[in-house]
Amino acid sequence: MKQQPIETYVEQMTLAEKIGQLLQLAVPFFEGAKTEGEITGPMEGLGVSEETVRNTGSVLGLSGAQEAINVQQAHLRKNRLGIPLLIMADIIHGYKTIFPVPLAIGCSWDLKLAERSAEIAAREAAVSGVHVTFAPMADLVRDPRWGRVMEATGEDPFLNGEFARAFVRGFQGKDLQNDTSRVAACVKHFAAYGAAEGGRDYNTVDLSERQLREYYLPAYKAALDEGCEMVMASFNTVDGIPSTGNKRLLRRLLREEWGFGGVIISDWGAVKELIPHGAAADEKEAALRSIEAGIDIEMMTTCYMKHLAELAENGVIEEKLIDEAVLRILQLKQKLGLFDNPYRGADPAREAEIVFCGEHRAVSRELAAKSCVLLKNEGVLPLRRDQSIALIGPFAQSGDILGPWSWHGSTEAAVRLHDGIAAKIGTGRIAVAEGCGIEEASPRQLAAALRAAEGADVIVLALGESSEMSGEAGCRGDIRLPQAQLALIERLAELGKPMAAVLFNGRPLDLHGVADRADAVLEAWFPGSEGGHAIADLLFGDVQPAGRLTMSFPYAAGQIPVYYNSFNTGRPKDAPDAQVRYVSQYLDMPNEPLYPFGYGLSYTAFAYGEPELSSPEMTPDRPLTIKVKVTNTGAVAAEETVQLYVRDLAGDVVRPVKELKDFRKIVLQPGETREVAFALTEPQLRYHHADLTFASDAGDFLVYVGPNSRDAAGLRFSLRL
After folding, report:
1. What region does 383 belong to: left with phi over 0, alpha with psi -120 to 50, or beta?
2. Mean pLDDT of 275-303
3. Which residues are catalytic?
């Protein structure tokens, strides 16, 4: 039987049924759910009736193939027109097979592997009944106090955009309707959520439009250019207006200027939050502002349900605003093939077969190893298999290594660091001691740690933050390790034994008390399900460290925000004629981060030759070629990430001291030299001028090639227009 045109559904729907499509409710409201009827806390006050649930268009947080089938079947029996539910969930960096957190994935600089991780996450989610994931997060992040930096890929707009594209490709594939192993992606949080003041979640954002367009918008645009189906509005204000009620942001920029025709959804409860923001007097005004701004789906508040009908019937809004939103939602359901197959990929038998399978876990292990960043190494790593090891710290045997968005991940099934090391050398040469908890310590714990360390050749410290200390609402003003762990390091350092620290965390940390005491520091982030194996691979040199930072590590929190693509000042500290005092500087710490963007060590060394330009002059019709020879001067094969940066020396507005424009990943054998070539074109030199025009300027530039944003050799060229 041929499906009727989508538009005819809208024509047949009552106003209440239309408004129902604009509502998203959590799982307990739906018949057939395991948690059916468990409506507690704020959900109790929503005033949701059975009729409302019958008309609702989407469900949040439902997963599990049989449960998804049960809920969809029950819904279709009750919905008058037989319109299926959209099932949405937060599949951020894996479903059951958990990959490293996105910030760690960014540090891999591996777009193909990032895409593969999203493809696997989609595969597991889709077979478990999910249709839409609230990912990727394309927010640019510069403040590590903000807990959600772990969900972004870093501080660079170009690199964030490349990863956003990769994630969208992985989640959605090429044919959502027929490829039921994929899910629709929803890019978030639109816009500039990563610029929250003070690094405090849900807080104010205040940016110039030029800053917004130049740095914060490009990665969202990249995701949409790749075909991302949905957009989630952010909690924060943009130019004094919360995104959820921001007509200029959502209708004018996103819909009219960018041409986005897909679904826009609010974040959890954000429509009603227009009231405490001070942008709406009551729920009716919140509904009015949100529908006028372009929010199609209201997540987990009922302002639309309670007030849109009245607003339409009284002529305050035209019903066509509601019709347009409904049509977009139905079009997404059609694109997912739900009218023909409302259960889509949900399959309990296949679910049992592929979810958390060995193939998926192997990719998680590979990506975890590539995401770790070796920050320091004074000859301690790699470990030898004949060494006795004291493995000490709260993460020595902890399964809390998945991260705060590992919804269906199992900490019990996660490979612990101890188990990863034991798989290499057995348990006989490993002495294990907790040493302290995450934030507290006891004399007994310390005594056990000292006993373990005294009999060992080398100490491996397993330190960090619990998953609760980052992620949404996981903001910290003091981003050092908790004092209990710093005290443990200090006491163990007194033994004078070689000591390597492995860090589990969701943000760049202030590493005072760690980097100055440990002989080696490996940043492991929250590495995912196979973390213990991946880290052991690196510690013993079976895999070479290749991760490179995509977010700077501050020298201290007092520098924040500190990021590589900053502006110069009129009195730069490093100017040839700089005065001793009256320059832009701190009196008590350096201006520069402890570890800069792009930084990371290996177990070998790479030597860079002098870069060469194909010409000292570029024109729109004649790009430049930049070549550099890179040599592996060490004894082991390893991967290097060769990075290309540009500086515009004089612009209509001030330009960053460096901007990443491209990168290449190469593998070199010991002694091997390879020439790496980049093409640099005039469009790559364009930027937003004071009047917001997007163009390049004739003039002089510097181009840099090197292993990170700090240690890069520069050449001068001119652009002629």
Report:
1. beta
2. 98
3. 267
